[in-house]
Design goal:
The structure holds 2 protein chains of 2 kinds. By secondary structure, chain A is mostly beta strands. Chain A has one domain. Chain A has no helices and 14 strands. Chain A has a 6-stranded antiparallel β-sheet, with no helix packed on it. In chain A, strands 2, 4, 5, 6, 8 and 14 form a 6-stranded antiparallel β-sheet that branches. In chain A, strands 3-7 form a two-stranded antiparallel ribbon. The radius of gyration of chain A is 14 Å and the shape is globular. In chain A, 44% of the residues are buried. Chain B is mainly beta. Chain B has one domain (11-149). Chain B has strands at 11-14, 19-23, 30-32, 37-40, 50-51, 63-68, 72-74, 84-88, 93-97, 111-116, 119-121, 128-137, 140-145, 149-150. In chain B, strand 10 and strand 11 form a beta hairpin. Chain B is globular. Chain B starts with 10 loop residues before the first strand and ends in a 6-residue tail after the last strand. The chains are: A mainly beta, B mainly beta. The A-B interface holds A 14, 89, 101-107, 130-132, 141 and B 18, 20, 22, 40-42, 46-49, 61-63, 65, 89-91, 147-150.
Chain lengths: 153, 156
Amino acid sequence: MADLTTDADIRLKGEAKTEKFYMDTSAAQTIYKGQPVMIDQTTDPLYMVGYVDGIDVAPTDVFMGIAAEKKSVLLAGAETTEIELYVGPSIVGFKSTVFTLNSKLGTTVYMSDSSTLSITAADNVQIGTLFKIDDGYCYIKLSAPQVCAGSGA
Amino acid sequence: MAGDLVRDADLRFKGQAYTETFTLDTSAAQVVYRGAPLMIIATGDTMHAIFYQDSINVAAADVCLGIAAEHKEVTTAMDEDKAEIEVYVWPTIIGLVNIAVPLTNADIGKEIYMSGSGALNETVGDNAWLGKLFKVEDGYCYIQLRNPVICSGAGG
């Protein structure tokens, strides 16, 4: 798999809860719907960056939620652009074959790039626990905001 | 068999109940009573559920899916895709009759397990993990379900 280049197909189970945050503009960035969004402590402890494979998540970094909309910002723009994120306790469904067995329900889930679910903490972003597998979608009970304490980057 | 259900349990709820549908394992006939925990046994059928009873030694990799919301019977070798059962899951707060272990409001917040399909217990042991005690009221223990949850503390 690879990082998102378009909005992801996501589904929701039950009521979704969202919060708004400001995007970091120390670099231009486009965040796609379905992409994890985080606080990268080495970049900016206040404003959001979209998680991509090139980011090595550290134990103090914070997963803030899953982007509910596509949003772009320019380099050095005013940090006043808001993005809406799905946060806990939303249950978000990702189209994925990473999990196919109900014996994995309850497993802590990470993302290894902006479109790929993973069971590996390593330098990945921790997003929640597997809630259900249904119709080709893996539903994740989000734990955002979540300090990625298990990450080792 | 200690503490296992022989009929549907009396259940109560606080707030809204949430359910998900799963399918039952039919490698053996099953009679699932309303109120029984449903499990995925990691070393058995990793897709289809069986009901928890005292004779099952829950292992750390097993998953407790939730509490059966309906009485369901399946026969051996029945089509598993048609053996659906509705299960109460997180964040439902479900009230179970407080008989096996006399819990009180002093126990609120403790993790709660089931040592039989009708018996609450504070001990992880080889038991099914439900969630945490929310309130004790009128002879019922209200449990805030965590399910589906991996029974990571179990040692059966």
